[in-house]
Specification:
The chain has helices spanning 4-10, 16-24, 90-95, 116-123, 143-151, 185-192, 224-229; strands at residues 2-3, 28-30, 33-34, 41-42, 48-50, 53-55, 62-67, 97-99, 107-113, 131-137, 165-170, 173-178, 197-205, 208-209, 219-221. The chain is α+β, with helices and mostly antiparallel strands. The protein folds into two domains: 2-55, Structural Genomics Hypothetical 15.5 Kd Protein In mrcA-pckA Intergenic Region, Chain A (Roll), CATH 3.10.290; 62-231, Pseudouridine synthase (2-Layer Sandwich). The strands form three sheets. Strands 7, 8, 9, 10, 11, 12, 13, 14 and 15 form a nine-stranded mixed beta sheet that branches. The longest helix is centred in the first third of the chain and has 9 residues, at 16-24. The structure holds uracil. Uracil binds at residues 102-103, 106, 184-187, 200.
């Protein structure tokens, strides 16, 4: 159960003050009945109509964004635009934050949510969620580079990477699956085998692929079924 005024303002129907006004003026119904007391406790699953609009309660929001180059994966930045600036829905923009980071020049799947425990499950050290990257390289790829990258390479700070999986697409491009996410990891892994990443895009998190219909800069909510795929 949740207070009617709280539910309405959390779902973006208006500020707490505005929704109080709507309720008091008889513009809000719950299961077909006009309710005029803002502090009335209602079921989260109730049928709620506010100013003629159906309001569906959601505890958390889950977003899939196709990040374009030039945006930083942060909530605030003094120099560059952030991925949050791509979220045009004001309610969503206020609530969600990105889970994990992509570099400013990396494109692809950024997951955003206001579900703290799930955010941690995806990004935390115990997460072990797979991330797949599409990588284009300056120099030709070899089977030897593949073997080394899959078994673990030592990065410039001495860190030995965990086992990875690589699928060569052609001489200059591949998919790389990682189960960890160190700073600039993909770029530093290829640097460790004397190659250079010239284009990078994250295409899958867990088993959930980035929706191909999303152009860079576009986003959509993730369905309940898709959510399960994030860590399977
Ligand atoms: N690895 C990188 O080097 N950059 C990213 O943005 C993500 C993974």
């Amino acid at each position: 159960m949740i207070r009617l005024d709280k539910l309405l303002s959390e779902m973006g129907a208006g500020s707490r003050k505005e929704v109080t006004k709507y309720i008091r003026s008889g513009s809000v119904s719950v299961n077909g009945e006009i309710i005029k007391a803002p502090d009335t406790k209602v079921q989260e699953s109730a049928d709620i109509i506010c100013m003629g609009e159906k309001i569906k309660y959601k505890q958390y929001f889950y977003i899939m964004l196709n990040k374009p180059q030039g945006y930083v994966t942060a909530t605030k930045d003094n120099v560059n635009p952030t991925v949050l600036e791509l979220i045009d829905d004001e309610l969503l923009r206020k609530r969600v934050s990105p889970a994990g980071r992509l570099d400013i020049d990396t494109e692809g799947f950024v997951f955003l949510t206001d579900d703290g425990p799930l955010n941690h499950k995806i990004t935390g050290p115990k997460g072990h969620v797979r991330k797949r990257y599409y990588v284009e390289l300056e120099k030709p790829l070899s089977e030897e580079q593949k073997d080394r990258l899959e078994n673990g390479v030592t990065l410039d700070d001495g860190y030995l990477t965990k086992p990875a999986k690589m699928e060569i697409i052609n001489g200059h491009s591949c998919y790389l699956d990682l189960w960890e996410g160190k700073f600039h990891q993909v770029k530093r892994m290829f640097a460790a085998v004397s190659n250079k990443v010239i284009y990078l895009k994250r295409t899958i998190i867990g088993s959930l692929p980035l929706d191909e219909n999303l152009e860079p800069g576009q986003y959509r909510e993730i369905t309940d079924e898709e959510l399960e795929l994030l860590w399977t």
